[in-house]
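G., before I forget:
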Amino acid sequence: MTSLIQDPLLWILIVVLAAAVIAVLRARRTNQALRRKKNDLEAGLTAARGEAGHLHAHIATLSAQHDHDLAGVRADAEAATKAVLKSAMGTLQSLAEEQQVLLDGLLKKYGDDTGVLADLMSVDHTGSQFGRRAKGISVLCGGWLGRRDSAASVYDVARSAQGRIKDFSRVGVHSQVSISIANKAVEPVAVVLAELLDNATNYSAPGTPVEVNIQAVPTGVCFIVDDAGLGMDQETKDRAAALLSPDRPVDITALGDPPRFGFAVCGMLAARYGFAVSVGSVSPYGGVRAVIRVPEDLLTPDVPQPEPVQEPGIEETPAPQRLAPVPVVGPSHVVGTTQGGLPKRRRRKGPVSVAAVPDAVAPAQDGTSVPASEVTASRIGAFARGTLLGRDNTTEGPQNQ
Amino acid sequence: MRTPGEEAVTSDFVRSYVITGGRSLPTSEDLALHTLVTLAPERTLPLGAGPEVRAIWELVSGGYLSVAEVAGHLELPVGVVRLLLTDLSAQGHLLLRAAPPRHQNVDRATLEKVLNGLQSLIG
């Protein structure tokens, strides 16, 4: 026993045991404290989560409210901006119109002075472009175009539109139609055509032609604008299509900087007056083909001025004067000159004919080269006249430029 | 569709620089204001004639008319009409005639002699 008590190993064991018991007790206390702390924290977390969820819902409500308010404010601002712009543009439109009327007078007053007239014309040209811009912006802001008192022929509408763009001399107008646009649609169609011509000349190489062809279709009249540019990419086509068939008022602040008003103006006017504008097909020259289709209810059959003037032209178009180079009338024709300088004539065989076809055959019997070339010329001339008459399906006679 | 804000537009619909096609204008030396023009016999209207050329065609087909009168009837600036007339003339469609020269002033004494002679004949 004594030996046991004196055994240091036993004491060491006891000390270790005591230390272990103390450590275990301590660890248990710490564990309990930690558990309590964890429970507290978990409760806190749940509360915080609830709070956060609540806050999220609140934020969502606020942000919806904010968006709604913002849209309202934007719409108000847009409306206010448009109202101000419309009023301002109205003033500019009036001034531009006043200037045009003034220039009409000046052009006539100084018409005899070539230099002054040319200068006035360049001022007039700038003024016309200015007027078109003012009109375009005004239309987008809900304003109105001026109203013409009389109908205008489709040819004049196209030429008026031509005068409102920068590169007007590149534009060629070809009309086979003698019909007029009703007075209320004259300015809208001219403005839309001017915008399309402006696009066509801006997006094609300088010097390339831009053609306006006017064709009658069963549902009205089409103005077809063809350019020789590079065409439009898909993005531009989509943008154009969206602007050309507007389902709501155009946002003028979303037209870019510098703003591209063209298609938006076309879409607004077409929707307002009831005609159709389409772009995006390919022109025969590889560029863009744009088409304005004006329905029948915006057309009037009467042509204001050219109608009476046209009469002599129609009567004389098939007249025989154009056959004059071919020796139609007379028993003989000149085949050369004599040594004395007198015209050498050859007798014609057979009866004298005034019709073109028998006459065309007759010189072939002579076998001389001069009549042969005349026959060729006559045939080509007759063919040209025939195709022109064939293409011209109206009774008024062709009036292409 | 008409609103009170829509005003009538009265300016010329087709601007004169479009009618000339932006070409440079001829000077008055070729066609003075009082130069008389008429249609040459047996001419046909060119196929591509615009409304203005057709109007000129009809105006001058009836006999001699001065350049100024043609411009007045067409309500176009003289320079524009001059260009159109120059085109037609270059194509051989027109006959031009300078206005009759102003008579040289006959001296007063001769006129008085004539007057006296006439009075003695009648009286």
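Chain A has a mean pLDDT of 79. Chain A has ten helices and ten strands.

More on Monday.
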